[in-house]
Records
---
Amino acid sequence: MVLPNCRGVFSMLLSLWLLASTPVLAIWPAPSSISTGDSTLWIGPALSVTYNGRNLPWVYGYEPSGSKFSSSEIVKGGVARAMGNIVHNNFVPWMLYNRMELETTEPSLSKPKTYIVHLDITQSKTDKTFKPLAGEVDESYTLKVDKNGKAAITAVSSTGVLHALESFSQLFFQHSKGPFFYTKSAPVSITDKPEYDHRGILFDVSRSFFPMESILRTIDGLAYNKMNRIHIHATDSQSWPLEIPAMPELHEKGAYANGKTYSPGDLAKIQQYAINRGVEPIIEIDTPGHFGIAALSHPDIVAGWDSEPWTAYCAEPPCGQIRLNEPKVDPFLDKLMNDLLPRVSPYTSYFHTGGDEVNFNMYNLDPTVGTNDSAVIVPLLQKFIDKHHARVRKAGLVPMVWEEIPASYNVTVGKDVVIQSWLGDEAIAALTAQGHKVITSNYNYWYLDCGRGQWLNFAGDLVETYYPFPDWCSPYKNWRLVYSYDPRANLSAAQAKLVLGGELAGWSESIDDATIDDILWPRSSAAGEVLWSSPEGRTQIEAAPRLAEFRERMLARGIRAGTVHMPFCTQGLNATACQYIE
C-alpha cells in the first residue's frame, strides 16, 4: 500500500514528534539508548552522594590538585562541577517552548515537589591508568533516575562516571521564577558508550598566544561534549611560547613578548586540569618543518630562517626547518626532549612529533644538504625520524606524526605510531590499507579556521589575481558540514578499525582568545556527536534543536559558543520550521 503524499506525512509526523519531545532528548551527544517519562522531579543545591557504597563529601568549586590522581578525587570533582552547572550555570529554556508558552508549560512552583536528594555512583572496576592508549579505558556508563527521585550511575571507569555526570547535569533546567531546577522527563534510563576512542581538538598556541583561561575553558568544553583529547600545537615558526627550563633561550628569544609563555607550572596545570576531566593532553613540537623560530636562539641548527620569497620555501612565513645533516641537531633535540618528555609522560601516552609540510626546496639552503633531490633528502629524513621517535619511546610514549611522513616522503614509521591525516578520505584509505593507525582531521570537513578569508595581505597585480581573497581551504565548515562527515566512509571493516577517531583543527593564524570559542563551538559539538554516537539514522532536522539547546548550556557555563540558528527555528523543538523545501 502506498500512502498519498508520503513525504508530507513523514514531515508532519516528524514535526509532531519533535513538538512532543521533552528537553531531555536534547542530551548531547546523543546517547546509545535513552528512555524517558513525563514526571517532574526537582533538584536542590544539597545532594548526598555515595561512591562505591561510601559517602562522598563534596563542595561546590572543588578541584583536585597534584599529579597523583585517584578515582574518588576525579569523581568528587566531577560531582562538584555537575552540581555547579545545574544550580549555578543553568538557563531558563524559553527558546525551547512555543512562543509565549514557557510559563504555561514549565512546572508549577506551588504544587508539591518530589526532589532528587541522593545520587548513588558505582564504579565496577579500578582505574588502571589515567593516560590511556586508544581503547584502554571503558568509557561506558548507565544513568537511571526513577520518578520517585532515586538516581544511580554505574560505570566501569571514573571517565565513564564523568560522562554520566555530564548527562545527569543536562536533565535539568532553571525555572523562570528563580533558582529552582527541574526535569519534566522522569523516569530516565540511559545506556551509553562512544563509537570512537579518540575525540579531540587541535589547539594552536603558537601562531597566536592564548591565555591559560582560554585553554582551560576549551578543556571544559571538551568535557561537556564527552570529548577526550586536547592536542596542543605548542610551537611553530612564528613563536616559541613553551618554556624549556634547560633551554630558556628558546622562549626568551622566540616568544612574542615577555609573559606570553607557558611556564612548567602552566603546562602541569593544563595537563592535570585535563586528566581530572577525562581529557588526555597531547603536546606537539613540530619537526623538522615549522621550526624556524628556533633560529633566533640556535641559528646553526635551522636552515632558511625567514628566507625570501617565502612562497618558494614554506607554506607560510616565516620559513625555517631543522637542518638534516647538522651534527649539532642531535644534542639539541636530546636536551630538549630530556627536559620536556619527563614533564609530559605522567599525563599522556602520546607525543606528537609533527612532520607536516616539509619543503624540500628549503634544503637547497641547508649547508649540510645543499639539494632538493628527494634521493638525498628522504634517507636523511628517515634517519631523523628514527632517532626522534626513539627519544619519544625512551620516555615511554607513543609517537604521533602528520601523514606526510609516511605518505608523501615515503619514510617508514613503526607500527606503534599513530598517523594524523588531514588530506582527505583517499589519504585515510591509503594509510589504513597499509595498516597504519589513523586519526582524521580531514580539512574538507574539520578544519574550523577555514572559509573566513585570507589572513595574508596582497598588493599590486596580486590584488586582482586573488580577489575576493578566499583562503586556501574554503568554504566555511558550518556545523551541518561538520556533522555530515563519516570518518570511516568507504573503508573495509579491517580498515575502519584502524581509524581511532578524529580531531577538529583550530589553526590560529586568524584566531585569538576573543574569537576562539565561536570558532570551536558548537561546530566541535557536531563532530563530538559524530565521534561519540555516530549520526547514522539521524538528520540535521533531528540534530538542530538538540544542538541549539546544548549551545545554550555552553553559554550558561561560560563557553562563548556561536549560534546554531535564530530562536524561531528552535521554539517548540520544531526544526522543520526552518527546513528548506523546494
Note: Confidence is low (pLDDT under 50) at residues 1-24.
---
Amino acid sequence: MPIVDWKSDDFAFKSGEDVFTPQDLIELARPGAGVANPAGDLAVVHVSTYAFKDKKNNKSIWLVPLESAESPLEIPLANGGDTFWLDDRTVGHVVAGSDGKGHELYAISVKLSSQLSTPGRPALVGTFPAGAAPANFKYARGAARLVFSAYVYPDGDLSTVKAQNEAYENRGNSALVYDEMYERHWDTWTGPKRSLLFSVRLAKDGANGAWTLGDDFVAPSKSTKHDVPVEPFGGTDDFDISDSHIVYTTKDPELPPAWHTKQDIYIVDLLGKEKPRALTSGKQGATHSPVLSHDGKKVAWTELDKDGYESDRAKIVVYDLAKGVRYTLTQDWDRSPAELAFVSDDTALVFTAGDHAHVKLWTLALPPTPGASAMHPVFPAGYDAAPTPLTDAHAVSAPQPLPRGRVLFAQSSFAAPNDVFLLRGLGSAQREVKQITNFTAPRLRGKELADGESFWFEGAQGRQVQGWALKPHGWKAGAKKAFPVVLTIHGGPQGVCEDGWSSRWNHNVFAQQGYFVVVINPTGSTTFGQEFTDAITEDWGGKPFVDLRKGWKHVLDTYPEIDADRAVAVGGSWGGYAINWIQGHPEYGFDFKALVCHDGVFDASHNSLSTDELFFFNHDFGGRPWDPKGKELTEKFSPSNFVANWSTPQLIIHGSRDYRLPVTEGIGAFHALQQRGIPSRLVIFPDENHWDLNHGNCLKWHYEIFRWFDKFVGGKSTDAA
C-alpha cells in the first residue's frame, strides 16, 4: 500500500433524497447578514454557493425588500468583491481590477416600483491606486467620504504600494527576519505591510447624477502605530464612522502583542487634521465593536477588564463626547455583549449576547450621563439596568436598528443557515419578528434536520451543566441499542456549542449519517456566566472531564436507543486536546471504539511556546512554561505525558498552516500512536489553517472522519425498522 493514500474509495456516505450529506452541506447556499439602506426599505445580502460539478464558488448579492411584497432580486458577482450602500437606491461595488490595474468602484442603480430592477449597466466611479487591496468599506454620506482599510508599507502611502510590492518580491532571497513578535499569526508569516484606515472623497454630481471617486487618499492615523482592523479577524466591526469622525479599536503598540490583549479605543477626524484621541482609560484589556451614535455625541464599545485574557467578561462602556465622561453600562450583568448598535434615536442600544447556548438579541435603554467617569456608576432611581431579550433562541448576528422601531438581523439555528429577520415594535410591548428571506429552505425541504434537544445535569462541584442531543436519521423511539453515538467536543476551551449553523462542524451532518449526536458544554464554556467560563483556568484536565463523564452517563441513561458499544468521539482545537487527554485516561470509562482529533494539543509545554498568541497559554496555565506554576500545570495537563495509556484507534487531522496549534502537535500524536502499534491515520492539509475552508478539503475531511468511524462501529443498520 502506498504511504500516501490519495484516493481512498473503500467507504461511501449514506445518501438519499431524504439525507443531508456532507456534499449537500458544502453545496448549500451560504447567506451573509442583511445590510439595509439608509431608508430602511431594502437590504443587500451576500450569498455564495459552491458547485462541485464546476468546482466554482458562485457569488452574488440579493436585493431584499423589507416593507413591500416585491420579490428579491439576485445580482451575480462574477468576480466577487465588496458592496456597500451609497444612497437609498445605489449600491457601491468594489472589485479587483484586471491586468494589474487598481481595484475599481462601480455604482449599481436600483429601482423599486412594481418589481426590483437594476436599470442600466453598473457605472465605473473610479479606481483605487494599483497594488493596494482596499476592503472594509463604510460611507459617510453627509461628509461625502468613503472610509476603508488597506495594507501599506511604513510610509503609509497607497500610491507607492505597487512599486514596493515589486521591490519586495524581487529582493533576491526569501528570508523573513524578525526582531520581535508576531513573526507569524494565525496562518500568515508577517510581512513588511500593515493595515491602516483611509478616507477619500466620494460624491454624487448634482448636475448629471454621476458618482465620482477622488484621489485625496488620507490616512487619519498615519502618524501613529495604530493598525486597524486588528489581526487576524478584524473587519468593519473594528471601526465606525460619522460625518466628521472615525472611532476605532487597536492593539496597544507599546506592548508585545503576543502576550498582551490590551486594545484602546481612539477617535480621529475623517481628514486626520487632529491627533487621534484615546477614549479608554488605559487600564483595560481588549476592546471590541466601537460604535458612534447617530448624532455623533456618544461612543459605545465592549471592554474586557484583564489584559492577557481574551475570554474575560465583556462589558458595554459608553463615552459621552460632549461631557468627556466614560462609564460602564453593564457592570453587574453576567453575560458578554458582542455586536452593538445605537437605535435610530440614540436612546438605547441593541446588541447580541450569548445566554445558555443561544445567541440572543437584547436591548438596553441609555441612562442620563453620570457626572463623572466611573466603572460602577450610580444610575438614577427607576432606571432598569437589566438588558431586555428580544429573541429567545437560536443564534442572532449583525443587528442593525432601522427607523420606526425596527431592527434588522440575521439568525441561524442547528437546522438552518442564516436568514434575514426584521423585528418591529422595538420599545413597545407589542413586538413581532418576521422572517424576510428563505435562502436555503427549498434545498433543505424533506431532510428533517434535528432542532437539537437541550438537556441539563449536575456536573463538577454541583454546577448545572448543559448539553445538546441530536437524534439520528431514521430515529425510532424505543428501538433499544439501535444507533451508534458520537460525542463531539467543542474548542476554545472558552467557547460554546450553540444553537446555530456551521458549515464546518455541522452536527446535523453527523446525525444524518446515522449517529446519535451528543454535545456537552463543560466547565470553561461561555454563555453560562463568567464564573463557569473562568473555572477551567489552570484546570484543563480537571473539571471539564468530570462534566463530560457525568453528561455522557446522563445521556446513556436517558436514551436506551443508543448503542454504547458503538461509541466514538471527535473534537477540534481544545476539543482535540480533550480527545488526546481521554486517550490517556481509560479510567474515565468512556470506552470509545474510535477517536478523531482535529488540530488539537498534544504536548502542552511545547505548544505553549510554539503557538502564535502566547497570552492564551500564559493565562490558562498560570504562567509561562518555565514559571513554577506554568511548568507544573503544563506537565500535569499535557496529553503527551500519558501516551503509555493510549490504546484506542485514532485519526489525526491537521492543517500545515495552523500557527495557533502548529502541525507538529498532530504529527507528534501520530508518531506516538504508530510506535505503540495503535491503529491510526494521519490526514494533513498543507494549505489549511486551524480550519478546513477549501470546499474539496472540507468534503475530504468529512470522508475521512466517517470512514474512520465506520471502520470501527459501522456494519449494523442504524435505520431501525
Note: Residues 348 and 365 are 4 Å apart (CA to CA).
